[in-house]
Write a structure and sequence with these properties.
- It is globular, with a radius of gyration of 25 Å.
- Helix 13 runs antiparallel to helix 19 (404-415).
- It has a single domain, classed as Growth Hormone, Chain: A (Up-down Bundle), CATH 1.20.1250.20.
- The protein starts with a strand and ends in a 12-residue tail after the last helix.
- With 500 residues, it is mostly helical.
- The chain has helices at 33-69, 75-78, 86-109, 115-133, 143-172, 175-202, 209-214, 216-228, 234-238, 242-253, 259-270, 278-287, 289-304, 307-312, 314-320, 325-353, 355-379, 382-402, 404-415, 421-473, 482-488; strands at 2-8, 14-22.
């Protein structure tokens, strides 16, 4: 493409030059419209990702902060709760019960309010739950009840976030960024864990747990304010308002022509049927049970592998391994740093190595780390083995972030057909939180019953089962569009009502 150059003459008139110059040069320039469009599109996608992932960060913050709050020198002391008890497990898991309840509700409601609105409601619940948790006076008969109710409210925000944020990110990102951004959502959760551990270390004075839990409201307000100005997911809108879906998609693709992509989204949305009953939704999931078996199975195994539950009790585990109260919190911060770094590296490589190789590598290393932890806590006394336990827990969280951490949610969102994605993600989140509750609630009791060697050996056996599951049933989805993945699993749109 070329343009004529007009030059100013001596009398102020312009003369049209006979020569033509190209509008573009062989290499990309900042003035090239295509380059500008791509940069603008990426910046819009990344901005939406940032605000959506903040809500996920607050899930991680709950993990890290709670690990520091439910120690003998913080909330347990203020409310006379014994360590390694069922009551300690209940205080940890009450937010997970809230997450489970909201995820079950979302499965029943499906896609009623949209991804963006879910994130907004989640942030509102975060503010309510975090502020309510710090209000009750110490050593009162009603104090623990108020905390449990507030943590339950906070947990409903977690359930909303884990249902909506992965879907929102997947449905707004282009295919070349989708895997990276969904995996980086996991990095946001891990950043929250690290921030929670840091808060526990900084505010370690008596009563500091109120500042630790209350601080979550600040980030929730920022996430809420950012999401207010973001468009709804174009894939969610496609089955409801095609014109608005086009506007949303054009926003995220900037100057690029998204008509072909929009047509594919709309065609897939036409096949979706919004069942109004839970039984109807279960029937829909049953139709695509292979996809749910893959995604839901990974989420179940992810939780009972032990690593998520260990994070809630990291300072307590370090104290049991021979470290002092403050040293255990510093060690937890180090674990959080290692976990974050490994998450970022895994996120950057998720589209290079593929999903299945990273899963196999990560879970295999988890097995080795848990086996080493079992041997260390069995063969050495607490003081002698404390340094090894720190190293082995760092290896465990690194291995988790290579495989289960970023890949499980990515696989779930990728294998879910659009026509039942809301139902499947909702049910998958419920499965995830149900087993998360089980793991967190029982860890103190299992530690007392089996001892730390037996506990880690139990988790190692789960990792062996996970390796067999991944090898047998999990497909490679790297580099495929969401529609191509449906075809790969035989879950594409049926042309005829009676087609198999």
């Amino acid at each position: 493409m070329a343009a004529r150059v007009r030059r100013a003459g001596s009398g102020g008139a312009t003369d049209e030059a006979s020569e033509r110059i190209p509008l573009t040069s062989p290499g990309p320039r900042s003035s090239d419209p295509v380059v500008r469009w791509k940069r603008e599109a990426r910046s819009r996608v990344l901005l939406a990702f940032a605000f959506a992932s903040m809500a996920g960060c607050l899930f991680g913050y709950d993990i890290g902060s709670t690990a520091s709050v439910v120690t003998a020198d913080q909330a347990l002391a203020d409310f006379d709760i014994r360590g390694n008890s069922w009551q300690q497990g209940a205080l940890v898991s009450c937010s997970l019960y809230g997450a489970l309840a909201s995820s079950l509700l979302l499965f029943a409601l499906g896609e009623v309010i949209g991804r963006r609105q879910e994130i907004l409601v989640a942030n509102a619940m975060y503010v309510l739950g975090s502020l309510g948790s710090v209000l009750p006076p110490a050593h009162t008969s009603y104090g623990v009840g108020v905390i449990i109710a507030s943590r339950f409210a906070y947990g409903t925000g977690i359930g909303l976030t884990m249902h909506s944020a992965p879907a929102y990110i997947a449905e707004t990102a282009p295919s070349d960024l989708r895997g990276l951004l969904i995996a980086m959502k996991e990095a946001a959760i891990v950043l929250g864990i690290l921030l929670g551990y840091l808060a526990g270390s900084v505010f370690s004075y008596p009563g500091g747990w109120r500042v630790i839990w209350g601080s979550a409201s600040l980030l929730a307000v920022v996430s809420f304010a950012g999401m207010v100005n973001q468009p709804e997911s174009p894939r969610w809108l496609a089955g409801r308002d095609v014109a608005r879906a086009g506007e949303s998609l054009r926003h995220f693709r900037a100057g690029e022509d998204p008509e072909e992509e929009l047509e594919g989204i709309v065609q897939a949305a036409k096949a979706s049927s919004s069942s109004q009953t839970v039984s109807g939704k279960l029937a829909q999931v049953w139709e695509v049970r292979r996809a749910f078996f893959i995604g839901g199975g990974l989420l179940m195994l992810q939780q009972v592998s032990g690593q998520p539950a260990v994070l809630y009790f990291a300072p307590t585990i370090f104290q049991n391994a021979g470290l002092g109260a403050q040293s255990s919190k510093v060690a937890s911060v180090l674990v959080g740093v290692v976990k974050l770094l490994s998450t970022v590296v895994a996120s950057l490589k998720v589209d290079s190595f593929g999903r299945v190789p990273l899963l196999l590598c990560g879970v295999g290393l988890m097995f080795a780390s848990l086996a080493a932890l079992s041997l260390t806590t069995w063969l050495w006394t607490a003081q002698e083995g404390s340094r090894l336990v720190i190293f082995e827990l760092m290896a465990l969280v690194t291995a988790y972030q290579i495989g289960f951490g970023p890949i499980s949610w990515l696989i779930l969102t990728e294998v879910c057909p659009l026509r039942v994605r809301g139902n499947m993600v909702g049910l998958g989140v419920s499965v995830n939180f149900a087993f998360n509750v089980l793991a967190a609630q029982t860890l103190p009791v299992l530690t007392t019953a089996l001892g730390m060697p037996g506990l880690f050996a139990l988790y190692a056996s789960v990792c062996l089962l996970s390796l067999a599951f991944i090898k047998a049933v999990v497909p490679e989805t790297k580099g495929r569009t969401l529609e191509e993945i449906e075809d790969l699993l035989g879950l594409g749109t049926r042309d005829e009502p009676g087609a198999p």
